[in-house]
Amino acid sequence: LFHENPKDITNIERPNNYGFLIGKITGKNKNGYQLSLTEPLYQGDILRIDHQKRDINLTAQRIYDEKGDLIRFATKRCYLKLKEDLSVNDAVYKTKEVLFYQELEKSYPKEFRRFPIRLNVEAYPYQPLKITASCDGKNVFYQSEDILYPAENKPLLKEDFEKQFSRLNDTVYRLDSVTFLSDHVFVPVTKINEARRQITERLDQARLPIRKKIKRTEAKKEKIAFDLSPVQLTVFATTEEQKQAAEECGISIIYTKENTIRRNQTTYPSAAKPLLIGGYGGIYAYRQNRHLVSDFSLNVVNSESVYLLHALGVERVTLSHEMNKKQIKQLIQSYYEQNDGYPNLEMIVYGRADLLFTKYCPLKKFDLCGSCKTNRYALKDEYGSFPILSHDDCTTTILNGKILNLIDHLEELDEIRFFRIQLTTETKEESKTILKQFLHKLKTNDKTKLFNPLTDTRGHFNKEIL
Known about the structure:
InterPro entries: Pept_U32_collagenase, Peptidase_U32, RNA/ubiquinone_mod_enzymes. This protein is α/β, with parallel strands linked by helices. The protein is about 20% helix and about 30% strand.
């Protein structure tokens, strides 16, 4: 975006804000830990202290000088009273500078325009509180339900009324002037607040024009329906070996990088059919193509989205990863009721789901640029290993550590006729084994369970989503 070097952006050491070094801990006395500074420290700054490879995050609410007096900022040396145990030479980083944020706030758009209110107030004993409010050429009148009584101690003064009524911050109004007529009367604060609330509401109603209801006639939609064709397996092949495995298994619909248009591409070259489209820009660019398949990245979760894509010329719609079994059934039923026929759906039933797409390749940080062509890499943490899938343009997709596998649930999806196998990190032999297992399941009534809980996941399929 700003012509930055991806190698400098990617941080392999920590996922959060690193901050910039401003000094280190150099001692401790009765005033607290001594901090020797290389950059100024201001009251309110947020710090990160690196103590024995463990982060201590805090806000510099109280800064002391050598005499133990509170100070607002320090440039060379100061003291912080902390409960945590620190060591000499612990590095101190600033992760948020309060002055910088204050400067940013000054650049924000100023407050919206407020409209002046002029009031005529009558507050007499044994009469209701009466207020006439004028604003923007409109007048409204307020009268309290209860009468007022003489003040025993402190009567309501004009200044007190103005102070209470002018609390209009949550409205578009400001108090301009008050004509105040009163005779030693007591008015509770709650009564003034109620008057303010009702007056602003009535001014809103008086100033806003009454809009006529617009009757909209729902345009008749052309019904789009498809016959239930024989069930087919489709394959997304990341590598040439995976493509060869699919061809050797007799798969006729294969998606590769040659006929896949990712979301947010800036160019749309000519491509082979069928086209797997990841975004609406691609659908528009290839709208004359008769063999468009929308990908899971369009996140289709309802029948209206399916209809819209079909109406835009998409031959087959891939459902979102995030749908469960019940939602899929409801989508198909809803579409059928509205169109007197079925939608043409595709669903990914095997493969590693995308967790993250980034333009910043983590391999560059290790000076391994280009090695993704010959080796496999993954990010590893306490939750598992997440494969790195590098693209030709050096963008990167981080894949799920577990494999979505619905091989034991195909018969529950009898109204979906295209099941996709999404191959990413599999070898040629692994790909052929997977494809043969799915083909066997589709051709036979074999009830053998092939789901492996150690390596596989069913994703959202059996989950109840509230």
